[in-house]
Amino acid sequence: METTLERTPAMLCSGHAACPGCIEALSARHVLAQLGADTMAVIPPSCMAIIAGPQPYSSLRIPVYQPTLESSAAAASGLRRALDAQGRSNTQVVVLAGDGGTYDIGLQALSSAAERNEDILYVCLDNEGYMNTGAQKSSSTPHFARTSSTPQGKPTRKKNLTAILAAHGVPYAATASVGHLDDLRRKVDKARGLRGFRLLTLLVPCVEGWGLSDDGGLRAARYAVECGAFPLYEVEDGTRYTLNYGLRPRPVADYLALQRRYRGLSPASIAELQAEVDQGWQWLLRLAQPAEGQALP
Length: 297
Ligand SMILES: Cc1ncc(C[n+]2csc(CCOP(=O)(O)OP(=O)(O)O)c2C)c(N)n1
Ligand code: SF4
Ligand SMILES: [Mg+2]
Known about the structure:
This protein is of the alpha/beta class and 297 residues long. Helix 2 packs across helix 8. It has a 9-stranded mixed β-sheet with strand order 2-1-3-4-6-5-7-8-9, with helices on both faces. 47% of the residues are buried. It contains 12 helices and 9 strands. Bound molecules: thiamine diphosphate, iron/sulfur cluster (SF4) and magnesium ion. Thiamine diphosphate (TPP) binds next to helix 3 and helix 5. One of its GO terms (biological process) is small molecule metabolic process. Residues 135-157 are annotated as: Disordered. This is Pyruvate synthase subunit beta.
């Protein structure tokens, strides 16, 4: 089947500055191909800003605005209004931000933009840490993961950004992964077709920060979904939860074993993580409808 990448010129060009095997670049490439050329990007300091490149160079074929780390959603709101004032209401405004700039430093501006139901698509490229500054922990880093600022393992759990934004009652909030490409493309298309505030949280396994093999990013992306650590679901209008992948064919231990950030984790801690993932899954099952053609487990 012909893909969007084959149909349209790539919005992200080759020759950019991502690490070899980077899933963030692959994710951005697919998201932008699906959105098309009539798009403007807001990219705060993050790996994605490095990948997009410093002025006057750019690896993207669309206009890019780089605001401060805390202000992406506010900058995107202003850009949206300027475009609307010019009669360009069909131009998509997309934010491509990291988890540090979203879960932590940009959360206030993000919550306000969601509350105002600004007409923007906010994509969080969630690599679970402050990666381009040396892999420090963020509030998206999962329990027990070692980072440069939590060398003994993070003592607290990962925040649930998608549920937090859904609780604002926004038109659309969903998780997605380039490891499940058809689902990702469908969600980008769906978000593009809606008006108002839309969030996509993309899990982006980080070759460097997670300690993966150079070709291990996609496997980690798939295992994260398959063990239930990163369930694929979508929430419409803050209330209608749909589970898009209702199976859990593998234990969390398979996923952890791919990553050096969990090296030396004790069997008791692995069991604790499994129990936390089970708990999150049960929470989701209480809220969610199965996707069409699927039964809930
Ligand atoms: C207010 C503020 N604090 C710190 C920084 C330095 N800084 C630039 S990028 C970055 C890491 C951002 O992490 P994340 O948003 O997760 O993006 P990633 O690098 O992981 O892609 C930091 C701490 C900054 N630019 N602004
Ligand atoms: S640090 Fe991680 S997310 Fe950033 S460019 Fe390298 S592999 Fe990609
Ligand atoms: Mg990050």
